[in-house]
Amino acid sequence: MAALLQLVALLAAFAGLVAGLGPLIRRIEAWSVRRHAARHPAPPGRSLEVVAAHLRRLARQVALVPAGMPMARRRALLAAYDDVLTEAAGMLGVTSALAELPEGRPREVERLRLAAELRAAGLQVPL
Q1: 99: which DSSP letter?
Q2: Per-residue DSSP letters for 60-73?
Q3: Which residues does 87 contact at the CB level (< 8 Å), separation at least 6?
Q4: I need a labelling partner for 49 at 20 to 30 A (CA). Which of 59, 66, 92, 121 fits?
Q5: Running DSSP on this structure, what letter comes out for residue 83?
Q6: Rounded Cα gap, residues 105 and 103, in angstroms
């Protein structure tokens, strides 16, 4: 009878150990993830290479606008191109007044000027 009680106690201890091991492992994993994140923080924004790739893609799309494209889509494409131009200019320290200018010729001139400045700064931007 004593051996049976010892066996039941041993099984109960083993079950308690298994039941308590899951939360312990989750805590250790969470601690490890927090420690890794503290040692290797994620960069605050996109890399310059990614921005340059988006800039080249959008410049190609703006240059090859198909006939009959709805005006809303064309404006959205230009707005996206302007946003990426401004982001690249901020990364390279080039001044930009693109956001303050209204649609029309002054904004187009600023786009060209900004693309030329980014090109002079070493970014491969189609003009």
Answers
A1: T
A2: HHHHTPPTT--HHH
A3: 46, 51
A4: 66
A5: H
A6: 7
CB 52 within 8 A of CB 81: no
pTM: 0.64
pLDDT digits (tens, 9 = 90+) for 33-91: 888 888 887 667 788 889 999 999 999 998 888 888 899 998 999 999 999 999 999 98
Instruction: Indicate left, alpha or beta for 43 from its phi (over 0: left) and psi (-120 to 50: alpha).
Output: beta
Cα–Cα distance for residue pair 19/15, rounded to 1 Å: 6
Query: Distances in Å between the alpha carbon of 108 and those of 21, 34, 55, 69, 119?
Result: 64, 47, 16, 19, 17
Instruction: Give residue 8's pLDDT.
Output: 85
